């Protein structure tokens, strides 16, 4: 979808559960559901919300039981969405890593399929790169801006474009820009060789971006450098402004999605990119998941 002559929006908010996570969930659940049924087990997943809803939906479609562990601060609409799909939901107090620990604890029948670590999930995300190139008539935009937290989107997109280049379907990689909030920015700071201090509590309105200590941090930074990408951080007021601007243009997305637009605007203002340069902004989730009020 065109935002301007040079800027396109990839509307991942239009996926079945309202986020890009469906790309990974459909591949993951399709690959493992027979094995889990044979063992008479159930799926265990940890999530800040979107992945939990996505895995719960595809588990329901495959007639699998699911148990989803979420932070106690999970967005109300996301919490309800997971429950409506029929999954058991467990709220966990503490950090995002604590949620993962609880999801991994042994329990009869429990099979942990955490989307962050599972390679099949990232394989599904690769399809985003394929679609972008196909929709650009097998040309490559100069820039891809996307929000980054645990890294499934970033790693999947880099992997997809790398695969296309190695297959000679494209001649060059786009510049992939990892956009983070000033509160949750371990990738940005490691990429820029700067120190990062984790906030005691994440209060950003970008509530899908909460991984202050992502387990795949080193892999993300290594992959981003090898792809000759870049990273940018944005402040809360920039996210809010970007969120409102997108809504007033007819695109109602999660504040976390607006981080990509805020990152684009920031690099445009600093003249790190040119206005005429073709760019794609990945809008990762629907605004119907947010608790923000006008």
Question: What characteristics describe this protein?
Answer:
294 residues, alpha/beta, Rossmann fold, five-stranded parallel beta sheet, 9 strands
Could you walk me through the main structural features you see in this protein, from its secondary elements to its overall organization?
The chain is of the alpha/beta class. The protein has two domains: 7-19 and 121-289, Rossmann fold; 21-118, Rossmann fold. Helices cover 42% and strands 16% of the residues. The protein has helices at residues 21-38, 50-61, 76-84, 96-104, 119-125, 127-135, 152-166, 186-191, 217-226, 236-248, 255-269; strands at residues 7-11, 42-46, 66-71, 88-92, 110-112, 143-147, 175-181, 230-234, 279-283. The protein has a five-stranded parallel β-sheet, with helices on both faces. A four-stranded parallel β-sheet has the order 4-3-2-5, with helices on both faces.
Number of helices: 11
Contiguous runs where pLDDT drops below 50 for at least 5 residues: none
Largest sheet: 5 strands, parallel
In total, the number of domains comes to 2
CATH uppermost class of the largest domain: Alpha Beta
Write out the strand line-up for the largest beta sheet, numbering strands in chain order.
Answer: 1-9-6-7-8
What is the CATH architecture term of the largest domain? 3-Layer(aba) Sandwich
User: How many β-strand stretches?
Assistant: 9
Beta-strand percentage range:
15-25%
